[in-house]
Every structure is written in C-alpha cells, then in structure tokens.
Amino acid sequence: MKKHSIVLWLMVAMLVTGVALAGAQPKVRLVLKDLDTDPNAAQFIQLIEKGMAAAGTPVKIEIVKVPSGNYAEKISLMIMSGDIPDIIYFQGGDDKIAMQNLLEDLRPYVAKSKYIKNVLDPHSKTRLESYPYLVWVAPPRVRAPVIRKDWFDTLPSAKAVATNPTVDTYYALFKDLVQKKGAKFGISITGATNGVEELDSIFDGAFGITSTWMKGADGQWVYCRVTPNEKQKLEFYAKLYKEGLLDPEYLTKKWDTKEQVFYEGKAGIIAGVAPGSIDVYANKMMKTQNTTLVPLPPPAGKAQGLGPFVDVIKESRGFAIPVTSKVKDAAFAVLDFMWSPAGLKIAKLGIPGLHYIEEPNRYVLTDKYAEWYNGWFGDSFNGFVPDKPLSRPIMTEAAVEAGKLAVKYMMPDKTFLIPEQYIANWDAMTNLYKEYNADIVTGKKPISAFDEFVQKWYSAGGTELTKYAQTKLK
Amino acid sequence: MVKKVKSPAVELFWRWLFTALLLLVCVIVLVPMLNLLALSLSNPARVPEVRGLTVFPKGFSLINYRVLAANPLFVRSFLNSVFITVVGTALNLLVTSMAAFALTRPKLPFRRFFMVLIIIVMILEPALVTEYLVIKKIGLMNSLWAVILYKTVNVYYLIILMRYFEEIPPSLIDAAQVDGASNMTVLRKIVMPLAKPALATLGLFYGVFHWNEYFRASIYLTDPMKYPLQLILRQFVVLDDTASLIGSGTLFSYDEAARLSYDALQASTIIVAILPVLIVYPLILKYYARGVMEGGVKE
Amino acid sequence: MVALAKKKEWSLLLLLAPALLYFLIYHFIPISGMVMAFQDYRIFGKSPFVGFKHFRILFASPAFLQVLRNTLIISFMKIVLFFPLPIIFALMLNEVRSSILRKFIQSTTYLPHFLSWVVIAGIWIAFLSPANGGLNQLREMFNLAPKDYMTDKGAIRWVLFASETWRSLGWDSIIYLAALASISPSLYESADLDGAGALQKMRYITLPELLPTMVTVFILNMGFFLNAGFDQVFNMMNDSVISVVDILDTYVYRIGLLNMQYSFSTAASLFKGVIGLVLILAAHQGSRKITGKGLW
C-alpha cells in the first residue's frame, strides 16, 4: 500500500518535473537554518543555480524565511501551516512530522543518486536505513572542550589535563584559570538552549554515562538520567557552580553570549562541535586575542568519552523532502549536486573574490574565509578534492586536532524513538529533568532531591517507557 | 465637595496615610518604566551606571533609537503593527456596529436565534488547535488577515453597543426609513453619529487590543517580515534572543554590532512599543474614565 | 403600526452577515472540529475514531494533573487573593480630597492595564533581574543577597500575582469608585448627625452599599477560573519554573502546536471548555439570583 503510493507519487513527480523541464526550470523552495539572514546567501544560491545549469539539471532555488526563535518549533509551525518547502533542513522535531507520514522515504533517491551515496559515512548509512527521512553528510556530532593556547602554554594544570585527563585534573584546571589567569569562571555553556549538555559532552563518560539507555547490573535497561552515575555527576556540577567555576549565568547563555565570554577572557574553557565549531572558535579567538586554541581530551573515570552519544537510530539533523512537494526529483537533485565536486567547491570554499581568490595555479583563501560557514550542507569533507591546491589548509590545526579527538572518543548510543503514545508524557518527563537539573546544579535544591526526581520521573511515565525499552533494546 | 465633618486629627492622619500609600503605588507603577526610559536614553558609555532604580538618564544619547530606526526588521514590524491596528479597528467598528444595529431592530428575522448564537460564542471557546486548522484550511495562513480578522467582533463590546443603540429613540430611525433611507444609511447617518462616544471608547479598546496582540501573529505568520512589533519584542526582550533583531549573520562574524550590550537596546524597543499607547491614553481617559473620575470627585 | 413592526425586514440580515461569517470561521467551525478529541487526527488520510482514549491518557497523566493544580492555584491567587485589593484601593482613593492628586493617581495606575503582557513581562524581567534589577537594588540596600525571582519556583507564582496586581489594581477599582460615587451623601450626613465614627460609617453604610458590586465582580470572575491568564503566564514562564506555572492553556499550546499531538491537545481543550461552561452558567445563574443581572 505504502510502496504503491510512493511509486505513484514518483511517477506523478516525474511527470510534473518532465512537464516543468519542457517549460521552465522547476522551482525548489529551500528552508535552511540561518541561511535567510546570511549576507552571502543570494550569491551562494546563484552559484548553485549556475552550477546546476552547467551540470544539466537547471533549477531555480528560493530561500524560505524562518522566524527567529527555536528553529525546530518554527519549522513545525511552518509545516503545519501548510507552507511546506521542497527541501527542509531539520534540527529536531522531524520525528513528529515523519509520524504524520509527511516525509518522503529518501532511500530510493539515495540509491539512484550520483554522488551522495558515495560520500555517506557508514554511520550515516545505518541511520538512513532505520530512519529514511533525513539525509545528512557529516562526521558524528561530538563536542570537544577547548582552551586558548596562550593560557594552555603557561598553565601546568592544563598540561596535566592533556596528559592525564581526569575529573580532578579538570577541576584543578578550572580553579587555576580563575586564580592565575583572571578568568571570571572556568567554563561557560549554552544553558538557555541546551541545559548542561555541553558539560555532559565532557563529563558524562567519566561518570560512567555512556549511552541514553544503559544496561544495569541486573540486565535491565535503564534511562541514563535517572541512574546513580547521573547523581554523582550532578553533585560535581553543583560543586563547580557553587565555587564559581561554572558560569553563574549559564542558564541564560546562548551560543553568541557563550562565545562572547570566551573571547573576552571571562570563560577559560568552552566546548563545541568538532571540528566545525572549533574551527569557528579558533578563527575568532585569533581575531580577538591573537592566539589559537588547544582541544583537550575527555576525563577518564568509570569510562572515557566525548558526548553527545552518537545516535545509531537517526540523524539528529539533516535534509528532508516532504511527500507533498511537486518537485521532489529536482529537490533531491539539489542535494546530490551539493555533494558533487562542483557543488562541494561552492559549499566549502565560499564566494569567489570574497572568501577565496582564484590564481592560475592555486586558490588563495582570504582573511574573510574565516567568516564563511562551510557546513551549510553538512560538515563532512568527503569527496572534496579541489581542482587546484589551496593556499592554506581549510581548517585550523586546532579544529583538525579536535576532530581527531572526536573520532577517537565518540560513544555510540543505545536508544530508540519515543513512540507517539508516550510523547505527551515524554514532554513532561523532559521538563522534570531540566528543572531538577537546573535546581540541583544551581544549589536551589540539595543533591538529595535527585532521588525525589527519579521517583517523579518514573511515575510521570518513566515506568511504562522503561518497560517499553526492554522490548526495543537488545 | 467638602463633607460637613469636623476633621479631628485622627481623621486627617488617616487621610494623609492613604494619600501616601496611593502615591507609593504610583511610584511602583512608574519607576520600572522610567528606569527603562532612562536606560534607553543614556549615553552608551555610561549605561553601566544605570541601576534598577535609576529614573534619570546618565548623559544623553539617541543611539539606541537610531539603531532601531536603521533596522529594517524593526521598522517593518512597526509598520505592520500600525497597519494591523488601523485596518483591524476600522473593521471592528464597522462590523460590530452593523451587527449591533441589526440585532437591536425588532424586525430582524430569527432575532432570538441569533441572540442564542451570540451567547454560545460568549461561553464556548474553541480549541486552539481546531481554530488553527480552520485558518489553515481557508488559506489565511501566513497572511496578515488571519491576525486582523481575529476578534473582528468582541461579543462583550457587541452587547455594550447594543445597549447603547437601544437607547436611541426608535422614532428617529422610523422617520428616516419612512423617507426611504436604507438600513446602511440609517446606521451611518443617524445611529453611528449618535453613538459617537460609545464608538470612540470601543475603538480605543479594539485599537489597544490590536496593538498588543502577538500570540495569533506568532502562530499564523511564518514570514518574519510580516511580524508585528509585539512579536519582535517578545523574541528580543522576553526570550532574550539577540539574533532575532541583530541577525545571526552579524553575530556569527562577530562584528562590532555583536559586541554591543543589549540591555539598553531592549529597553528602547519596550519604550517604542509603549509610546503609541501613551499617545492615545489621554483619549482613553477622556472617553472611558472621565465619567468615573468626575463622578468620584463629586461624591 | 403593530402590523408594520411584525413584518420582518430580511435586508437586516445583510448587516448581520459579516459578523456571522466571522463567528462561523473563528468559532462555530472550530468548535465543531473539536470532535477530533475522539479521533487520532491525521493531516493526511482518515482520522480513525478512538473514543475516549485521549481523555483516559489525559487523566492518567501526572503532568496533566499538575497542570490542573497550577491552574487552580494561580487562579485562586489572581481572583480570590487579589479580590479585596481594588476595593481597598477605591476606598482609600475616595478619601483623597485634592482632585489633582486623584487624577494623577488614577491616570498613573490605569496605565498598565493598556500595556501588552509582552511589554509588562519585559518591564518585570528587567525590574527583577538579579544582576541589575530595581528590586535587587533594594535588597542590596538592606544587605540581602540578590535573588533571581523569575527562575525561583517558590517565588514565581507571587511574581505572577504581583505583576497582575501592578497591571490591574487601578483599573479594577474603577467599578468600585463608580459604586462609591453613587452612594447618596444623605446617608453619611444622617450618620454624622447620629454621631457615627469613620469606622462605623464604613461598616454600616459603605460596605453594604458596595456589596452588590462586589458580589457581581466576584461571581463573574469565577466564571473564568480555568483561564488563569494565558498571556501573562506564557510571557513570564521559563524552563526553570515550568512545573509550577504551566497552566491548561500553555499546556494545550505546547502539546498541540509544538509537539503536534492535535487530538490529545484538543481533548484537553474540550475538558477545559466543558468545565468552563459549567462555571460560566453557574456564575450567570448566581449573579442573576443575587443581583438580578446576569452575564447576558
């Protein structure tokens, strides 16, 4: 039944595209986070259109504007409103839309693709197989902590973290940053949008939290945020907060304000996605403080690893094509083109004359190159082989190092999709966690309140969900 | 005005205590607003000196307002709000008076039935989700009209206006109709002019409602260039989302603008949103509250 | 003449039509759509009928019960606790003799009523800011440590109460001022002759004269008990305090429009609608019985 309708849709889509091609180029509407406000977006799109015309698949691309605010929420509202673009970049919220059967199964498209199928990493292929609605080409999204190099070089405690990373050496480093370097606090995180996720990226592993669901000693699966390990971890966070080592205003920090305190020397360490964000940090740090960054390895404890856990079920972000699109093939052609050598050149190098200058025998990356976001269509560099050598490496050394750490220390996740009947409960359970988490870390509640949280979590639907987990996980 | 009471010292004491307490309430109402005004007008270099109870600007500068006036998104949202308010209020008054007039005419067919309908509207509230789906189905999504039309007729105002229309002597209307005037003409030429104070009051209330509306806009509009001011304000001030006004591109490249302190800029957006209300506020007092105030003084 | 009055004028329907069209789009069709509370709503294809499934999940969900409790507590604070304040305000204002002072007090305290909750939330967030807010500056003067009221679960409901008072104290006193103004001065004069003191006059004249107004206001407010003020809560809540201020309307919005659980959210709305209906009808009857005037 479903297959049938897909074939039917494909035929209709092909027919429509055929007719459209005979007449005008198909128009593909694209929604992509932050692209609508990027000053170089128009030129970027023009280059893509030119490139696709040259490749024999001409399209017209329109950027759909997104209201600012929580991107996942705004996209949900946009789709529900019936204003459905042809290519949708998701960053959360896609699963609920997929449940409404609104998203196209992309596997047949990838199988037929010219380029994408060759650049997909194994983890991407696995995810596409189990959740075929999002395609994304990027290394696993893992965060790494970084410290500015001039401080790293002059602090013995920083070297101690590099050679012998433990929770204790990290703690000593945070203290030194404040006492010896005049930082206001050891580490800042984007608490307003991500809670303590960025701290978790560093410390989850050391406290023995290695996947969303973990097998207990009794062989039963248990949600990682209600384990005794989590309790110990929160106790540590509360200590950091109390001693002023964690940004006291972390609950209101967003990405821009978190970066700001780092460049201004108020925060000693921040964590960011490796290598992409680390590269951005390194460039901006160079611009403001004239020093680069050093990524640090995660502390070893009960385990050792960098978070977030690498999902094996689905992509956490990526491109989808809605079943309602009338130009599905053209839409997918855009994605496929972006991973062709010609497309990759545009995406990775930016606007000619601005971000790079073409010389007879090489491409010279300009100072402005640091401002070019080369991850619009995914952070991966798979398949990127420029036809002329580059004047300098695309990524800073710090970013490359951070990328290596990420690959070395990533932790594969064990989890499943929350089924529809548990979504309302899941919303409540997540809020419960966020709340207790914030209260315990900021000292509004003592650590003993954690047991109360666990109890509430189970009665808010955790018991049922845990039962369900036993059937889903092996 | 003066009551014939001997004013013993005790009574005088209480009177002064009450006055002092009431003035304290005024201070509590005014200080937070004056503080934001002071913050928005202060010299940027001296902004850190402005504390929570400061009510006079430190130095003087219009820089924040200049930044806002140069911001296309902000200017656009201001114009959107003006458009929604003007068109919305005109429509409110027209449709509400037409309905009130029809409903107060004894000759209206099914009059009782319509009155019951109106009571149903008053006491039954549709679910947010179903209203949303209807707006989507009739194609008003991402249209300013979805916002303008919301509360075209406020049932409570409709009933107030009906009460007012009922006071108009029927003979006036009948006479005009004998002369062959249509219903619309009677409404326009006779009823509405007589009901001017009521219409002015309702117009002000409808207007303030439109100016302050943000929630329907937030769920029905997806294009930021259609946003009303209150929604930009909510993003920027309440949710503290700097990118909503400054643009993530600017923040991303970490330019000059990204290094500003935003408290003063937020304060000025609030002041800009209050200003139009302040401008019509004397009218509101004149039309709505005057009777009460004067009545109160007379004792 | 009598015959003429009986003759219906169909063209009047034209005048009513725009209003009816509006009610149709924004009220009647959406209300009829609420049948989806008994279905599993799908954007595409048929929505299967599931009976009371969503209601069962709703009432079994501790989150929903917490939301209901929050709604009742916040409503109680804003309706019952707040109730005497505008009366006291009106009584005090009534004693102010200078008409300039009176006008100033009235003009000032009515103003917040006309500001949107977005603006008020902005003002209050700034005023309560732990870093530089006015209230914390006051605390500093008394050597108290700064406190972050907006993210404090113990304080946030009182913030809601205080900001509601800030906005409505003056405005809501108008109706009492009007009632006070209509009390006949002769009542006080004869009391004066009898040698009654201020307190006695208050007890035996003012309060009994105000009683009908008080009863009406109170009963009418009870009819909207389940509302608890969406705009206020929506603009003043944040992740740290969501468990204590999440009310029915914010819950319905989050679950329905953001988590796309349409049917479930509609079930919650329907529940609220039914209880609300009962409350309003009761208020109507009660008001009619006591004061002779209902809601319509």
From TrEMBL, chain A:
Keywords: Cell membrane, Lipoprotein, Membrane, Palmitate, Signal. InterPro entries: Bact_solute-bd_prot1, SBP. The keyword Cell membrane applies. Gene3D superfamilies: Periplasmic binding protein-like II. Residues 1-22 form the signal peptide. Belongs to the bacterial solute-binding protein 1 family. This is Extracellular solute-binding protein family 1.
